[in-house]
Amino acid sequence: MLADMVMPSSRPSAHGTTPVADATSCAAPRERADACPGALRLHRADDGGLARVRVPGGALDVAQAGALHTAAARLGSGELHLTSRGNVQLRGLREDSGPELAELLSGAGLLPSLAHERVRNIVASPLSGLDGSGHREVAGQLAELDRLLCESEALRELSGRFLFAVDDGRGDVAALGADVTLLAEPDGTTLLYLGADPDAGVLSVADEHAAAAAVAAAETFLEAVQESGLRAWRVADLAVTGAELARRTALRLGTGARGAPLAPLPAAPALGPRSEQPRAAQNAAAPVPGPVTGPSGAVALSVLAPLGRLTGRQWELLTRTAEDAGDGTLRMTPWRGVVVPGLTRSRAPGALAALGAAGLVTDPASPWRGAGACAGRPGCAKSLTDVRADAAAALARPAAASGLGTGTGSFALPVYWSGCERRCGHPRGDRVEVVAGADGYRVAVVRGTGEELPVPVPAGSDPGAAAAAARVPEDGGPHRDDGTGHGGGALAGVAVRESNRPSERSGARAPAREDSATAGP
Hints:
With 521 residues, the chain is of the alpha+beta class. 24% of the residues lie in helices and 19% in strands.
């Protein structure tokens, strides 16, 4: 079997090898440059300690959800923050909270391997098995990948930013730029991608061997890192291409894997009615807020957390809904949403209405859909402003919803607000960015390639209104085939950057970052 072809560790498994109290610290020094926080290694932010709890595939049972709520309420701010990898961040943690936090999480089964807790970064199709789409249900493959990852002594050396994706074939999480992607095929095989750029490599493996092949691919990556002598966090950091890593992985796996023609991974889609989007974007769309009815008649509820932040009351309501009306589980999504599976048709409308009344996003036409922001002040010292408050105020204004309805012709890009030029946690693909600078906010449409198309914001005007207009093309139509990602509407020919709002503090321009301790990857 392919699992036997993956080289076993010569040392015992890392499970339980480190005492909880000794493993827990706040901003403890590390030999590696990667300072990505975890549940045992906390980040010290301006608002207190920050813990990032990895939740592979975003899957929680109600006991685990309850443990996270207890930890947030007892040790931190009481809020829970969803990340763009379907993980949970706890903020405002006390200086001495580390050991107690670790005990709470361990007791709920959220730390199956202390040595691997930062590297269990796995996203999975959140609607797999619920809506009749995709080629097959991936829960088993997800669980096996997590188990094998935790059993690999080598993979404890992965960066906390290395990402796995398990896609049921619809292309949603395959569009997120993971380092190792498993994409289900209709013929019972799985495509394994290494990297996410044009040099990505791809192998075809049998479904039952896909998880082991993903582990072998990650171990091959680490071997290439050691050969290079560099500190590489992700496949894109290596001079070795994904195609070369795929060739080495195939040699390692032997007859269990074969090369496959390189087909581009799905592109991250913009928002809007699926019927209006290009075919590839339709397949890669994130879950739409509202009810999701499966072939069996069971209903799942899809909701979004405004700017990824959930109050304790909202989290309690989600957990209670899952326990009393659903199947006892929750699925957090990489789009800062939550899916509650297993409701009956009769109970779903009332449950959805209660979640909406609690402040969660349940309307597909909501301007909060596709809107994100970094942590901002007071949590991040580098932020120039309370960017979440600014974003929330802008999204609450009527102009924010202009053109974002679900009627024919609407088509909207995600929008991301950043408190400084680092732009921590910004989404992948085409988007609108609102970035705080020394003289106020600037707005731009940013292509997936990184090219920026500035949007004018006249002095004294509202950057939120400019951002809302930029999200929807002037003609209201779908993408134009010019690669801009926003058609040929109001932004054509724009070449001037202006800003309007005095910032609270000046700061130097820095390169954009993919993720951060405060924003959450």
